[in-house]
Structures are given as C-alpha cells and as structure tokens.
C-alpha cells in the first residue's frame, strides 16, 4: 500500500505542475485545486513542497512556477542528445529560408517540440520547447507516423481521437491512411491549414545510427507568403538536406531512440 501511495503522490504532484500553462501562469490555491481535482488542503501541500524545492513561488495569494521547473524537461533533453545535435542545423535552415523551423519527436498521440528556431510568430498559440500538437494534423506528425511499424501504427489510431481542428483538417481515418501512405512513399509531407488556418508547413524525416525514423524537422510559413509549389521547389531541397545532415551526425553519435515510451 505504501508503494501505491507514493505513486499516487507523484501523479498528483505532476498534475499540480501541469495546472500551470500559458493561459494560467498564475493561479490561486482554489484554482489549482479545481484544475487538478484535489482537495484544497492536498493542493496546498503539493504547492508548498514545490516551493520548498524551488519549483514554485507565491505572493501570498497566487502561485506560479519558477524557471527551475525547466530542469525537469531538460533532464530528458540532455539524456536525449538529439536537440543539441540538431539545433545548429535547425538554426541554419531557418536562416536559409527565413522561416521558423522545428524538430519534434512522437509522444503518444502528439508531436513534442524538442528544438526550434523562430523568426516570427506564425500561430495564435506560442510554440516553445515542449509544445504538443496532435500528430495526425501536423506535417511532422505524419512523417513520424509514416515511420511506425504496423503494430505501433495500429495502436496509435486505436488510442487517438480524431477531430477536425480547422475546416481543412482531414478527420477521416481512411483519408489519413492514404495521406500517410503517400508520405511514406515520398519521404516528406506538406500540411496546409489543418492545424491552424493561415499556417502551412512541410516536414521531413530524421534517422538515427540504426536507420530508425526518430524525429522530424519542419518549416512553417504563413499561408499567404508562399504557394505550396514554392514549398516543393525551394524549401523541400533545403529541408531534406538538413534532415540528412542531422541524420549523419546522429549516425556518428551513440544515442538511444528519442521516442518517449
């Protein structure tokens, strides 16, 4: 029973941390309790524990996370190694095409951003390291899904709820399967306003030293600035060269797969 209680404590503590986000960076005790479903006394204990460890702070009425909480994510990124290897390549690609570029890995139903070089804000939601989006609606996600084996591919769709995020989102599994099969054949993917209206992106694959597809790089651009044909003719060669450069560096480095299990 003690072991179960300890696990529950970890789950609750993580829930308190996740209660803080871009929309709610500062919250009262009552708000944290409501967001997590915890009793106020329980939420208070977890908040005070986070404060004692330096992960949270308060002014007496509101609580917020401190920059130290980034250590929790950077522990994973440091062990991964991939973002450190990829970041210079991502920055070079961003300078070359003058657009925002990112690297992501697959985590359950989502892509998670692990490296990024931004030149302008192109989405209503700010994209930072750790940002998550549904894989099926993103160019990087479809590239990563195209690299799954049959068992993992089937498991993804069984565990994922598909919904239209914009009027242009492909939300029928049969159509998504066809699109991902095409991505698998051609080795890259364009997504046009399916994640957010006004946003168009193109993504390619990154392989590790064993040839496994472990990450994806994308270029994101405002819909009105570049036609889809320009993404194919001007952006795609630079994108694939970057993916290959990162893959080459990974092959020369002993790394474990970055897919989060």
From TrEMBL:
Gene3D superfamilies: 3.30.450.40, Winged helix-like DNA-binding domain superfamily/Winged helix DNA-binding domain. It comes from the Bacteria. It holds the Pfam family IclR_C. Keywords: DNA-binding, Glycerol metabolism, Transcription, Transcription regulation. The keyword Hydrolase does not apply. One of its GO terms (molecular function) is DNA binding. The keyword RNA-binding does not apply. One of its GO terms (biological process) is glycerol metabolic process. NCBIfam families: pcaR_pcaU (TIGR02431). May be an activator protein for the gylABX operon. This is Glycerol operon regulatory protein. The gene is pcaR.
